[in-house]
Amino acid sequence: MGEFEPRIVGFLCNWCAYSGADLAGVSRLKSAPNLRIVRIMCSGRVDAELILKAFQLGADGVLVAGCHPGDCHYQEGNFKALRRVLLLKRILRDFGIDERRLRLEWISASEGEKFARVSSEFTEEVRKLGPMTLATFLVEARGCEQEVAV
Length: 150
Description:
There is one protein chain. The chain has helices at about 15-25, 50-55, 75-95, 110-130, 135-150; strands at about 10-15, 35-40, 60-65, 100-105. The protein has about 150 residues and is of the alpha/beta class. It has a single domain (about 10-130), classed as Rossmann fold. The protein has a 4-stranded parallel β-sheet with strand order 2-1-3-4, sandwiched between helices. The longest helix is centred in the middle third of the chain and has 18 residues, at about 75-95.
């Protein structure tokens, strides 16, 4: 068996982080091939359900990347993303899942080098954490749903 290769989903803001990723690619900067990019219009549009669904479907890590604070094309989207990610990190902790599996970064369109560095660093961090224990996640998530449904 080979070394564990993490599956990472990246939700990237169309206006900044996605353009930064594009710049990294055009500049031929080395970045992690494990990152599967989903282009979104704003990091503030990434809701908790979407992130949890990524984990449920087998992601070992989730990266949310948006515009720097004050530069959001939708005024406050990145602040919404920040609040959601902080809340989700607490929820993940409650599920017994290491909160380092979820990361929020501010990456502008001109920061191709930063995108390459962040994607590589995050991949290495998730690799050290090991595979996501999906069975544990599902059991605990189902228990939570049952409690909520009562």
